[in-house]
């Protein structure tokens, strides 16, 4: 049994992660923390657990004193809050999987510029592996600290990687038009997250300045082997969970839709959680799962490729991907605890 | 032109009232207030007004200094906040229409018991007329202060009044099973009002203890001419607006569904905003309107009558009903500014 | 491994059942049928299965020729369609679990009256056990044919059974005010099931005449040991899945809320899938699960008890309950294949 | 009073149009037709009208015999169905406003290619004016037949026109990423329009091949004075009404966001129904209105301009725009019958 601790268990991502860990056959949850609900039982905060699973929420501080009880520490905190405890954990020989943004950007300066927070200990960041198993499985296997990718970046990077790797598309001005369910905004209290504000509404936000932009650019650039520029436009969907990203890519050479499909199928042939589909993907087919589904349309005359991808932002975009990384790090089957389909309705 | 002031313009009820007053041909809006957004333009708080209507939000205090500019003061405040300003207004000869709960209960003690607030000046409460035009049109005409009914009570009282007036149903344990859209909870920040908490969810709340209970009992009792006991069970619907109430009533004598329909049609024959329907009513047919639609089913063998009513909680249950009262108080056609149908979709 | 066949796999209940059987560790799916989609792969009809599970849909007729391949036949058909094939299966020594209404009513005449269909072979109906494990676990164990309860009846019967068994409430005019998500209406094409008709809407339907009424009356009567009369009022909720039922019961003697809670906790103490809760239950806490959650409020002065229950109509109200019955019939742990919690959001 | 007839009154667009005409002070509705519901009263088909407005639905054929009773004929029919009756009407001196696609494309061959229907009488098409008042007000004034623009094209063309007119953006590969509410799919019965299929879902559809593509290209081309190529990607939003379009445009020269805003404000300075906004537009601020709201973001370094526009697809995208055209054709104030704001919630 892998002994795990979880700090930040009461945000939507943290709760989802807890749900998965509770289902997982090879983990034992040693502690869960929450600064907002310290001292309460988790079932008082999330009624789905009542009678079935319970544990008292401790403070993050107390979590820091219990690192010797665990093999791996999951962190689902707002950005700028993970570094110190991550450092402690690493020192104690505990593996770290961080669901926040603190260790996703290779370059500490870029991080500082976009997140307005400094890496106190840039060494930790240097150790961190970007936890997208489909691209970094081998590195994750050997890492002691993994930065689970952001939800939007997961949907965007998986959608573009095969084309970028083969240099089949231009890397300037890649357009990522994304639409996310509301759970992506977290459980914090904001007028714009109220039911009556979101329901029957739709909007774009943070154009040219969403913090996931440098993360997408970094990974698209690495895939292509050269700098990539991304226009990232997030929108807010009136649904609970799910992200759909529509990518607009410019061909560098003529290529048919069928040829592109072949490349994707080959590229992801060993990736259980990526589903390449001839039909355009829909959120309802993957919600509540760790699956990323991808569909492609191409127009040779216009030299345009449109790739559409869907994920569940709380699972493949957060808690599920983190557990997938854990499975890899601990030599378990990658699908352990993650092998369920969408119920469709 | 009727000169109006509005305190509490930025809650959902206040905003709806403002919308109606802005459309109304015979009103001139002299000031609007908001304690939360004092100093902002209303269009900064509600983007629907941008470019079309604007006015700076003043404080409630400042509103008190401008009573000489208006003929009628609308108040859409949390309970316990209306009495002082209402008193001032009345003294200045300004008519008052209060959308809150402060003057709905005849008995100040009952008010105090349920709302945990005292009437400092019970005289004001005594002057107040319960502003349900279908039952109190004549009194409203002559009143200087009107307490606009609560949203749930409006749906319940209109549904039962004809049967109560004729003593065709028992007055003990009248069951009112109501379901309301989320705007009824207001625009305040509460975890349980977040989109992700309400969407795809449904729940009952405040059983046996919702504050609208004494209001419903008071008015049902008055209609019946004897004390009435109500079991009121509110539920939260994942929609923006609308209330549907299902009432279970016990016949005192045998009566057919058709006879009951006749009674309702007769009772409401002069009420433009009450629609008696042989089909069961649906929220989509009345949302965004001042209409209350009522359908009836009866089972003589079981001696049960079920009455189903629907209203838009923000209009017939708040701003629309308040303007309907104003129209009556100022001798205007009752439908002025209120004469639009639901767009259905 | 239990070899199973499923006829009616492409309705929402059938699909949910298939989902569960696919996750179940002890079953092997031998065939699935669909009259509407015969010849297609299930993944062409429900995209959630793509790449992960597939099987060609055969006709119901062909299913009849494959009974020798299976141990148990699940049937999820419109009413009036199960009898013939069920008879064949029983003759071949195949156990039958029917999710439809054909064998739920003990009295063939009552069935005929409400469903306008005749039992051609009333013997089958006589053999059938009402498949509510919490009340009939022992009988299910020994049965060869089980009628899985209707969704509304499941929510109503579990909510009232403990009080009825102890004769603590009157059995005349038990009010069951239920609200169901749209999947309960099935996947058939009807204008009133369109998104634009249901969304932002709410309505009651089939008052005094919904076909689940005699089923609820039968089981409430059996629990009480005397005839029971039920007023059943269904409503349509704009959500995908979930039923909340609000029951109004009249005390036969004075009893406190706390005493009632004790009775319920004792009554269901061995029932893994019933959760008694001091908080009022919410659909989001049980959706996508086989759990029925129940909350209670009582008012001694009014001699009224309100019981609120929630289930997922497609799981505890259909596919999950059917598999729970199968587990019992085949001596498996009752929770096999059903042991997951709601993801909350 | 303008005497109007309406064929196709029971689709969502037709119903919306009827709603507006019923509110309009200068119109008298002489007949309404529906092939699906011939012989019924409109209030039997759309319950919002009950008691307030009614008229029997006649057949389209019968409508053809009543052209002498009207001044203007509105047609809201599926494509390929308007030509014959339009021709009759024009011959009788009746003005025609067609909400369908039959007369939107200048080039009959393009129409035939995309819609697989032939113009029997191409002369009618030649007479038709594209009914976008903001671009063709003067032409509409003098026209006898107007083709009301498609919903998606309205949102796209208004968003891009000012930049195209000034040749500030490239005209190849203009990306229009649009998201529409479900009412755009009409009231026809399709599995994919069921509540349970759309709710909590999101998808893209008809990539590179949606029929609104040539219409957008035609009008963008005309605005720019040269051929325009458009990548149009529609998506289906789980809301009743509203379209948001996100346009990606390539600068031909460096220009700041502020300069672009100035151009838009100038361009639309006399257009009551276009609102240029410094905040990004949201559907909730314009739903149930005839307003198109537009927001702009630009990045000089990337040489990209993103324009976001929102409309109500049934009003500015259908019935409202048609009435706006009628107002212009008949010399009425353009805002007559259309002057209401969104209720926000």
TrEMBL record, chains A, B, C, D:
TM annotation in the entry: none
GO BP field: L-arginine biosynthetic process
Superkingdom: Bacteria
UniProt KW keywords: Amino-acid biosynthesis, Arginine biosynthesis, Cytoplasm, NADP, Oxidoreductase
Pathway(s) it belongs to: Amino-acid biosynthesis; L-arginine biosynthesis; N(2)-acetyl-L-ornithine from L-glutamate: step 3/4
EC numbers: 1.2.1.38
CDD domains according to UniProt: AGPR_1_C, AGPR_1_N
Domain Semialdehyde dehydrogenase NAD-binding: 3-143
Reactions the enzyme catalyzes: N-acetyl-L-glutamate 5-semialdehyde + phosphate + NADP(+) = N-acetyl-L-glutamyl 5-phosphate + NADPH + H(+)
InterPro entries reported in the protein's UniProt record: AGPR (IPR050085), AGPR_AS (IPR023013), AGPR_dimerisation_dom (IPR058924), AGPR_type-1 (IPR000706), NAD(P)-bd_dom_sf (IPR036291), Semialdehyde_DH_NAD-bd (IPR000534)
The protein's enzyme class: oxidoreductase
Protein's cellular compartments: Cytoplasm
Catalytic site positions: 151
Molecular functions (GO terms): N-acetyl-gamma-glutamyl-phosphate reductase activity; NAD binding; NADP+ binding
Protein name as catalogued: N-acetyl-gamma-glutamyl-phosphate reductase
Recorded family membership: Belongs to the NAGSA dehydrogenase family. Type 1 subfamily.
A cellular component annotation (GO) from this entry: cytoplasm
Function: Catalyzes the NADPH-dependent reduction of N-acetyl-5-glutamyl phosphate to yield N-acetyl-L-glutamate 5-semialdehyde.
């Amino acid at each position: 049994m892998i002994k795990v601790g979880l700090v930040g268990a009461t945000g939507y991502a943290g709760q989802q992660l807890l749900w998965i860990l509770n289902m997982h056959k090879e983990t034992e949850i040693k502690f869960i923390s929450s600064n907002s609900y310290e001292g309460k039982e988790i079932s008082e905060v999330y009624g789905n657990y009542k009678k079935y699973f319970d544990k008292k929420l401790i403070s993050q501080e107390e979590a820091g004193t219990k690192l010797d009880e665990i093999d791996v520490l999951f962190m689902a905190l707002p950005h700028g809050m993970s570094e110190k405890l991550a450092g402690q954990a690493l020192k104690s020989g505990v593996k770290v999987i961080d669901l926040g943004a603190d260790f996703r950007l290779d370059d500490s300066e870029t991080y500082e510029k976009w997140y307005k927070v400094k890496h106190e200990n840039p060494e930790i960041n240097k150790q961190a592996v970007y936890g997208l198993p489909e691209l970094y499985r081998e590195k994750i296997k050997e890492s002691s600290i993994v930065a689970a990718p952001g939800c939007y970046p997961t949907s965007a990077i998986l959608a573009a990687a095969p084309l970028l790797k083969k240099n089949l598309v231009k890397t300037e001005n890649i357009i990522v038009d994304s639409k996310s369910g509301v759970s992506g905004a977290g459980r914090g209290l904001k007028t714009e997250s109220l039911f009556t504000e979101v329901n029957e509404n739709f909007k774009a936000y943070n154009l040219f300045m969403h913090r996931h932009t440098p993360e997408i650019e970094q990974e698209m650039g690495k895939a292509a082997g050269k700098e990539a520029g991304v226009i990232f436009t997030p929108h807010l969907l009136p649904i609970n969970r799910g992200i759909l990203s529509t990518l607009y890519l410019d061909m560098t050479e003529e290529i048919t839709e069928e040829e592109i499909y072949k490349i994707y199928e080959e590229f992801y042939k060993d990736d259980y959680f990526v589903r390449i589909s001839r039909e355009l993907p829909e959120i309802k087919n993957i919600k509540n799962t760790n699956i990323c589904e991808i569909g492609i349309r191409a127009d040779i005359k216009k030299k345009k490729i449109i790739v559409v991808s869907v994920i569940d932002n709380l699972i493949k975009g957060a808690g599920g991907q983190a557990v997938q990384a854990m499975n890899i790090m601990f030599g378990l089957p990658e699908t352990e605890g993650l092998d369920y389909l969408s119920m469709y309705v």
